[in-house]
Amino acid sequence: MIPLFSIIIPLFNKEDYIKNTLLSVLNQTFNDFEIIVVNDGSTDNSLNIVESISDSRILIFSIENSGVSAARNFGIQKASGKYLAFLDADDFWEATFLEHIYKLITKYPQEQIFASALKIKTKKGIYFATYSKLDLKTNQEGVLNYFQYSLDHSILHCASSIFNKEAVMKIGAFNETLSTSEDTDYWIRAGLNYSVVFLNIPLATHQVVNNGLTKSNRKRFKSIDYSKYNSLNASDYFHEYINKNRFSSALKYKLLGDYESSKKLTEKIDFSKLNFKQKALLNMPLSITKIVVSIYNKFTYKKNYF
């Protein structure tokens, strides 16, 4: 029997988290799903933990370590469900996540992408993601333009989004040349093609894990090629979103000491759309920029800002 949902979980060295992630799916109140675990060359005990959980809905595949995008793309090819989720191996759902998404699918059958609000768990506590200009009340849903409501935190996240598989085929594969920002690249392509049915209830949790892989990815940071959108006849919200992400990428390059790449992106930024703090971070000496960013990150958390 073909399941309604395919939950694709790329797995690389998440032995401390994968069991909780899997149980959060297995304990859903809506249970018409399959779980596709793509073991991306884990070297810890992650695979053994997955294999110890006996449930026929869990399908396990192992590939050579190729990165999260390749693992997700492999999972897409193996998925048999009509709707796909890209849940990371350290994130988790509330028990009613799929039940709420199913109700949205039934209510908005013409739409292709569905998402709930998100919680962010760090060592300091749990935060609610804040969304730009969102006027939905708690428990209220709406069909939203991705770029208009993602100028602060993205309304799409791997932990909280569901895609019709036909839409995934149109959006295309995850970019395997990007070791970071591959999700942002995907959301841009999704937002250019579809609206998002967004439910303002935090039914998914993104767990911020600062492990060795994260640090390594930062060193290998490669910006999205924003230049391909320069001539695109899109909304002001889209161009503001791209400008914000150009700033973020330029700042990351600066923090890594890649001044040439940072300069190239900075030259393309519309500074009239930046606030005073953002302008200052790009212009001040690197040593001061690092101090400011370190202080900011110590006292607050803002996804995709620094």
From TrEMBL:
Record flagged with keyword Oxidoreductase: no
Record has Transferase as a keyword: yes
Family annotation (Gene3D superfamilies): Spore Coat Polysaccharide Biosynthesis Protein SpsA, Chain A (3.90.550.10)
Gene Ontology MF terms: hexosyltransferase activity
SUPFAM superfamilies for this protein: Nucleotide-diphospho-sugar transferases
Annotated Glycosyltransferase 2-like domain residues: 6-171
Keyword annotations: Transferase
Cited CDD domains: Glyco_tranf_GTA_type
Pfam annotation, one family: Glycos_transf_2
Name of the protein in question: Glycosyltransferase family 2 protein
Organism: Formosa maritima
